[in-house]
Amino acid sequence: xxxxxxxxxxxxxxxxxxxxxxDIDGALGTFAEDATVHDEDHDWVGAEEIRSLLIKTSNExxxxxxxxxxxxxxxxxxxxxxRLEGNFPGGVVDLRYDFTLDxxxxxxxxxxP
Length: 113
Hints:
The structure is a single chain. The protein is α+β, with helices and mostly antiparallel strands. The chain has one domain (2-112): Nuclear Transport Factor 2, Chain: A (Roll), CATH 3.10.450. The chain has helices spanning 10-20, 24-28, 46-60; strands at 2-3, 31-39, 42-45, 63-74, 77-86, 92-101, 106-112. The two termini are 21 Å apart.
């Protein structure tokens, strides 16, 4: 089921807004303590590793994010497609963010082209 940007779950919207504003603590607060983020062929596991990833991406790049599509794949799984434009190699990329949500947090996030 495709959705409009207004259908973006609040937890995901909070994460993306905090990440876009380089609010490390705000973005980290959306993750479960034992969450996993898969990005750039690496797994970042737990709060401290995810904090390191958030700091790394906030310091390396500036970008704008445009929401392309949101769909629920069932059972707390959401696929979000975003277009990022910024000062990273290539300058523009469409990325898939595959979120797994529990009741209150992001338990897994996989980011891929």
